[in-house]
User: Fold these one by one.
Assistant:
Number 1:
Amino acid sequence: MQLSSPRLRAALLAAASLTLVAAVLPPPTPLGIGDRLFPELGNPGYDVLSYDLSFAYKDNLSPLDAVTVIDARALQPLERINLDFTHGKVASAEVNGEPARFESVGEDLVLTPARPVAVRMPLRITIRHTSDPRGRGDGGWVPTEDGLAMANQADAAHRVFPCNDHPADKAIFTFRITAPAGLTAVANGEAVTPARRLGPTTTWTYRTRHPMATELAQVSVGRSEVVHGTGPHGLPLRDVVPAQDRKRLDPWLKKTAGHIEWMEDRVGRYPFENYGVLIARATTGFELETQTLSLFESNLFSGDGYPDWYVESVMVHELAHQWFGDSVSPRTWSDLWLNEGHATWYEALYADGLGKYSLERRMREAYQRSDQWRAAGGPPAAPKAAAPGEKIGLFRPVVYDGAALILYALRQEVGAQAFDRIERRWVAENRDGVAGTADFVRLASQEAGRDLGAFLEPWLYGATTPPMPGHPEWSGKAAAPSGKAAAAPGKAAAGPGHAASGKPAAGGSAQ
C-alpha cells in the first residue's frame, strides 16, 4: 500500500518510533531533584521558562477540562521527561509538536517523546488533561461556597496541573479560565485582554510579568467583585471579594495601601506588577501568600474573636511574603525559615508599632519555647523530614516565631542599621530569583563586615537555642504555663498563633 499523505506517513512513523523507543528503555520511575524534605518533587534535566494553563470550569464538584503548555530548555539529553502530576486524567501528550507516550508512575507523569531531546534544545510540552477538585483536603483546588480557589503550598500544584513542582524552578505563567456567565475568574498577574463572552461562558486571560514558583499559582472562580485601587507610586491594587460581602469588607481593603507603604519604608519597593487580597468564603485553616493576590478566609474579617490589630498583622504577614518567599524563593524547602521567619518578623514589628504586642515580649516568649520547638520539629534551617510513609508537617512553630527569633538575634548582634541594610540588600539582589540559607549568611557577613557563620550556625542548625545577645537574663528559658506558648489576645495558644490559620506563627500563611 502506498501512503499518499505526507502528514499520515509522518504520524505513523512517529507512532512507530514511540513503540521502538519504549521497547529499549527501562521502565519509567518517579524522579526528583533531591530535596531533602520532598525527595520526589521537582524533575531533573530541564528548566521551565513558562506555563500556559487553560481551565474550563463547570462547577466546584466537577473535574475541569484543562490544557497545560510548558515551554522549557533541556539541560541534558532527555529520552524521557518527568513531570509532577497526579489527581487528574491525561488524554494526550505532545513533545515539540509530536505525540508522546505517557505513563503515570507514583505522582509523576512520564513522557517518552518520539525522538530524544538534545541538550539546550527548546522543549515544548502540551498535555490535555482534567484537573479534579474533588476528594483531596491537603492542598490544590479549594472549594468555596460559590466556586474554587487554589492553595498549592507546599507540594500541591501538581494536583492541579502538570509541572516541575519545586520553587527552585520559577517561570512566567499565563492563565486562561473559562466559566459560566455570572461568575468571575481571576488569577495571578494582570489581565492580558478584556474578558471575552462566547455564548453561555466567559473567558479571562491573565499573565504574570515576573517569574513565579508553582506553589504560588492562584486561580479563583466565583460570584466575586473585583475592586480596583491605587497604592504607593501608582501601584495598581486589585482585591477580589465575595460580591455579597463587598460593603462589609471595604474598610479592610482600604488598609492595603498603607501596609505596602509601611513595608516599602523597611525593605524597598514592592517587587511585582500589582497586589491585592483574595477573600474566599471557605474554611481553609490558613492564609496564603499567592503571588500578587494573597488568599484569605472571609471569617478572618468577620469581627468574631480577632481584634483589629491582629487581623492587620496577618495581612502584613502575607504582604511581607511578596518580598520574602515570592520574589525571593527558597532554594530548597529546608530554606523555608527565610520565608516564614521574615514574614513573621514584619508581622510582629507591625503589631509592635501599633502598641498592641511588643516585639521584645514576643521574642522573649519565643525564646522560652524555642528548645521545645527544635526538639519537636528540628532546628529552623534543618526541619525534621517525614517518617517513612508519612506526610511531612513542614509548617511548625520553629519556622515561624522560631525563625523570627534568629532575625532578632542577628539584629542584636550586628545592630539595627546593619540589619536593615541586610534586609534591603537581600530582597534587592535576589529579586525574581531563588536563594538559600548559605546565601543569607554570606550576604549578612558582607554587610556586617565580618564572618557571621560561627554566630549564625547554632541559631540555624543547633539542637538547642544559643544565648541571646543583649539578653543574658533570657537564658533561663522558663517554659510557658501548661507547656503552651503565650498567645496574643483573642487567639488559641498556639505559638502565639493565628487560630484560624492553624499555623503556629501569628498570621501564619498557608501550609
Number 2:
Amino acid sequence: MNSPENAVICSAKGCRAAAVWVLAWNNPKLHTPERRKTWLACDEHREHLSNFLALRGFLKDVVTLEEWEASA
C-alpha cells in the first residue's frame, strides 16, 4: 500500500485524490512518436483530462494505473 509520501495523486489542478488512471500522451511537435508522457487521473477527472489531450491530438492511451505499473 502506498504511504502518504508515495501517494499517486491526480494531475488535475487542485485535485488531491488518488490517481487510478494513466493518460499516456505526446506532443508530436516536441516528442518523437514513441515517447510517452503521462498524466494521472482520478475517476472524477479522467474524462476531462482525456478530452483536453484528445482535443489537441496528444492522447495516445488511457489505462489503469495498475495496468501501467504491471507493464513497466
Number 3:
Amino acid sequence: MSKIPVPSGIPDPNRWKALVFIALAQLMVVLDATIVNIALPSAQQDLGISDGNRQWVITAYALAFGGLLLFGGRIADLWGRKRTFVVGLVGFAAASALGGAATGEAMMLGARALQGAFGALLAPAALSLLAVMFTDARERAKAFGIYGAIAGGGGAVGLILGGFLTEYLDWRWTFYVNIPFAIVAALGAYFVIREPSGGRNRSPLDIPGVVLSTLGLVTLVYGFTRAESEGWSDVTTIGLFVASAVLLGAFVLTEAKVKSPLLPLRVLTDRNRGGVYLSLGLAVIAMFGLFLFLTYYLQVVKGYSPVKTGFAFLPMIAGMIIGSTQIGTRLMTRVAPRWLMGPGFLTAAVGMLLLTQLEVGSSYAGLILPAQLLLGLGMGTAFMPAMSLATHGVDPRDAGVASAMVNTSQQVGGAIGTALLNTIAASATTAYIADHAAGATTPTAQKLLQLQGMVEGYSAAIWWAVGILVVSATIALTLINTGKPQMGEVAGSGAGAGEGAEDEVRIPVVAH
C-alpha cells in the first residue's frame, strides 16, 4: 500500500486540527450536490430558465466535476496537495459568489461549471492530504470514520439546509452559504497543514491523456444525463455512448504508451483498488436513485415541505454516522476490509428491500425510518474501508490521481444511477397507469392513479437497486483480498520505501 513519508516517524501535532478543516471542505462539496436541487424551482423562476434548460444547472456541475477529476488528481500530485486544496477552496468560493449573484441563465450555468471545475481540484487533494497526516492505525481509523460519516451523510444535511434557506431566506443563499465554509477551510488549511515532502510527481503533464480523459468522461456523463430526458434509443444518446467508448479506449491506449501517463494503468489493475472502484461505483448507482425517489415520494406523494423532507432523511444520516464512526472505526484495525464492505453493502440491500414495499399510504415510522437506518448503517460501515483502500499499494506520487479515481467512479455511478433507475421507474409508472386507466373515471380516482403509478415505478426501480447492492457486496467479498492493517505507524513509509514491498500488509491510505 501507500508509503507516503512522514518526517522522522513523528505524527503531525496539528493532525486533528487539520481534520476539522479538511472535513469542513468535504462537507461543503457534498452539501452542494443536494442543496442546489432544493433551490432549483425558485432559481428557475427568478432567472427565467426554461424547463428544457433547467437540468443544466445540475448537469453543468456534474460534467465539469466528473470530466476534470483525473486532471485535478494529477495537478494535486504535481503542485502539492496543500496548494491544490487551498486553490480549489478559493475558486469554489468565488464560483459560489458568482452563482448567488446570477442575473440570468448563462451566468448561473457558468458559475455551476466553475464550481464543478474547482471541486475537481479540491476533492482528490482532500483525502490524500488527510492520509499523510495520520500514520497510526487507530488514529487513522477514527479520522477516516469521521470523514466517511461526513462524506456519506452530507448530502442529506444539504436537503435540510437547502430547505431552510429556500423556505425562510432566498435561493441565492444556497450558493452564498459556501463562502464562509470555504474561507474558514482555506485559512485553516494554509496555517495548520504541513504536507510531508517527497510525495510530488514532477513528471511532465500528459496533455493527450488530459484531453482524451476529460472529453471521454464528459461525453459519458452527458450520455447518461441525456438518456434520462430523451430516452436510451435517442440517436444522439447512442452517439454519445459510442463517442465516449472510443475516447476512453484511446485514453487507455495512450496511457499504456506514454512515458509519464496521467493515469498509470497500474493504479487500475491492482485487484483491491479495482474492487473498491467497481463496488463503490455500483453502490452509488443504487444510492443516487434512492435519494431521488425518496425526495419525490415524500414531497409529491406525502406532501412534505422541503424542510420536513430534509428532516425525514435524518435516520439515514444517523445510521451513516454510527456505521462509519462506531462500527467501521472499531473494526477497521481488527478485520480484513472485505468483511466490513461485503456485509455493509448487504445490510444496505436489506434496507433497500424494505423500500420495495412502498405504497401511497405507507407509514414513515413503520417502513421508511427502519429502511433508512439499515441503509445508513450498511453504507457507513462499507464506505470507510472502501475509501481506505483507494490508494492501496500505489506509489505516493500517484496518490492524487488514485484518489481522483474514487471520485470518478462515484460521479459516473451517480450519473448512471439517476438515468438508469429514473428510466426504469418512468417505464413502470407508464405501464401501470395504462393498465389501470379504465377504472379511473373521476378526477379523484385519476389523481390517485397517478400517485399509485409513481409509487409503483419507484418500487420497480428500487428492486434493481437491491440487485445492484448485492452485486457490490459480491465484488467486495471476492475481489478484495487484502488482510487487516498492521498496528502502529504506516509500514514502509519514508522516501526510500520501494514498490517491491507491496506484498507486506500496510495501513491503507484513504481517498475519496
Number 4:
Amino acid sequence: MAQQLSPVSGGRQDSAAPVDSAQSAPAPKCPWYAFATPTIGRAVRHASRLLHHGGSALPGKVVERIDPGFLARTLSSLPYGVVLVSGTNGKTTTTRMVASMLSDMGLRVFTNPTGSNFTRGVVSSLLTQVSTFGHLHADIAVLELDEAYAVHFVRQVRPRYALLLNVMRDQLDRFGEIDNTARLLAHVARATTGTVVLNREDPRIARLASEVQPGVQVRYFGLSQALRSYFPSDDDMHNTDMQAAEVQTAEAQAVAVQAAGAQPTGAGSSTATATATSSATYNPDCLNADVTLTHVGDHEATYRITDHDIATSVKLEGVYNLFNAAAAATVVRAVTTDTPQGVASDDDLIASLSRVTPAFGRGETISVNGTPVELLLVKNPMGFRLSLASFPPAGHDTMIIINDEYADGRDMSWLWDVDFTGLRGTGVAAVSGTRAWDMALRLEYDQVPVSHVDTDLEQAVADFVAADPTTPKRIYCTYTAMLRTRAKLSHITDVTDAGVGR
C-alpha cells in the first residue's frame, strides 16, 4: 500500500505544508469582475463543444483576454506549487505518469490531460476544476507546457519543480534551430524555485544545470550504457545520417575517380570521422542519476534507484515511454522528499508506475466493432523513428495522417529525416491529411507501397477502419490529425472524452 500524504484542506498552508511558495510574488489581485471568470469560461467551453469547435483551448483564450491574472491567481493557492514538464518528446505521457504517481502517493493533483499545452490550454483545464468562485481543490499542479509557451507561463507562475525531457529538431518554423529550443528551456530552469530534473543523456538538457538559481536542487535521470543505442540524442541521430551521407558520397567519388584512373581522396570519410569525434566529447556518466533505466523488454523494464534494481511490468506503449518513466519517477521522488512523510519508497514508486495507462493518442487503443485501432502521435523525426522501431508493422494495417496546422508545425521537411524502410514489407494501407501527397511521395522514395491516398481525413479514416475487420489497425498521426481522427472514431464507436470535443 502506498504511503498517504496528508492533503492540505481548503488550499491553505498549515504547519506541515511547505513554507516556500511556487510563486516569487503575491498572487495578482482580483479585478472586480473576477467572480464571473469561471462562469464565462465554462459558458464559452459549452458553446464551443456544441458547435463542434473542439473546446480545449478557446475558453482559455477568452479568459486570458478578459482576466489575465486568472492563471497565476488560481495556482498561487497550491501548497506544493507547480511541476512543469517540457521538452520536445514525451511531455503528455510523462505528465500523465507524474500526475498519476503523485495521486497514488496521496496528493490531490490538478493537471492538463488533453495535451493542449499552451497557457490557454492550462487555463481551459482550470475552468473544468475550479469552483464557481475560482477555488482549485488541489495540493499540487502537474502541467505539460509547450517549449515556447513554457516561457510565457514562467513569467506568470514560477514552478517549484521543472522536468526537462529532451531537445530535438521539431517545428522549425516555430522554434528555429535546435539550440534556440534549448534556450527556451533555459528560461524554465532559471525560473524554477525548488528542483530541476534533467535528462543527463541529452547534452543540451544536461547543460541547463548551469542556469538554475543558487539554492535550487538539480537531479538527473538516465540510461545504462547498454541502452544508449536505443535512445539516440538529436546529435547522435544527425551524426549518423551525416556519416551515412558522407560514406555514400565517398563511395560515389571513389567510383568516379577509379573510372578516371585516379586515386580516391578519402575526403568524405575524414569528414565523417571528424563528426563522430565531435559527438563523442560529452560523457553522461560523469553525472549521477537518481533513476536509471537499465533494461527494456516487451511491456517490462528495470530501473536502478539508489543502487537498487527494481523490475516491473508496464501498461505503457513504446520503448521511449520506458525512459520517460525514469524521468517521471525522478521528479516524483523530488516532490515527495518535500512532503512531511518524506520520499516515497522505491517499491511503491515503481508499483505506481506499473499502473499508468497510455495518454490519449499516445499508444491509445480504441475498439471499432471489435477491431483494435491504435493511435500513435508523431511530430518530429526522433518520435516517428522510435514509434516505428517500437511497433513492428507485421500483423497490422498501417495508416499515416499528416497535417500541417499551427499545432503540428507548418514545416513538414522533417519527414525526410525519418527512415520508413521498415514498412516496405507490409506497405501502408492509407495516407491522409493536408499533406497526404507529401507523405506518399516520401514513402515512395523509401520504396514503401501505398495502397490509397485521400486528403479527406474523415472519409479516409472511416474507410481504413472498415476494411478487413479481422486485422488490427495502427494510425500514425500528427497532433491535429489525431484530434480529428478521435473525433471521427467517436461517431463510429465509444471513445473516451478527453475534453477536446467531438
